[in-house]
Design a protein that fits this description.
This protein is 70% helix and 0% strand. By secondary structure, the chain is mainly alpha-helical.
Length: 195
């Protein structure tokens, strides 16, 4: 799911090329076609090989097109609480995509249709929601939750400043947010009884 985050953030950002878009599309399709097979049967060498290719293509995409707020927030969680990077990305990805709203509908439509998650006849918004829902389903299947018990309310201003400093102005995100606006993601990730 870390590779999926690389591909998606590279694709929806504002600094893509024909080559990075192609790599992101290939990676996303390969992931949706193979991640469950590789997870369910570790001896499925073909599925594992395809996941390795997907990771490579996603890496090629994001090293040229950068990532976005999913990574910026995830890095701050890793730095402060030692939360594993891939886990933080997987947990955050649908939240950030939903928050971007209509700014990413067309690009998520393209990813969804190419990956077989949506149909060409779907409108942009419908396909985008199908794509986000498919990521949520993936999280459930892999027992990835929506919260982190480590997050402390008093740390959130500092964490959001780190994320803001990393992302702005380096990452070509679809919707620009400042440190105060980024705080919402940490609140979303907090266990509800601690909010």
């Amino acid at each position: 799911m870390d590779a999926l985050t690389h591909a998606v953030e590279a694709y929806i950002g504002g600094s893509t090329t024909k080559s990075t878009r192609k790599n992101a599309l290939r990676a996303t399709k390969l992931i949706f076609e193979n991640i469950y097979k590789a997870y369910d049967d570790g001896t499925d060498i073909e599925a594992r090989k395809n996941m390795l290719k997907a990771s490579f293509y996603a890496g090629c995409a994001f090293t040229k097109s950068y990532v976005g707020y999913v990574h910026a927030v995830a890095h701050s969680l890793g730095g402060k609480y030692n939360i594993p990077h891939g886990l933080a990305n997987a947990t955050l990805l649908p939240f950030v995509l939903e928050d971007y709203g209509s700014a990413v509908y067309k690009k998520l439509y393209e990813l969804a249709v190419y990956s077989g998650v949506a149909n060409e006849t779907d409108d942009y918004e419908t396909a985008a929601h199908k794509f986000i829902d498919a990521i949520k389903d993936m999280k459930k299947y892999f027992n990835i939750g929506d919260t982190f018990s480590e997050i402390r309310k008093e740390d959130i201003p500092e964490l959001s400043r780190y994320a803001d400093k990393e992302a702005n102005p380096l990452y070509p995100v679809p919707v620009l947010m400042n440190a105060k606006e980024l705080e919402k993601f940490y609140y979303m990730l907090m266990e509800k009884e601690t909010v």
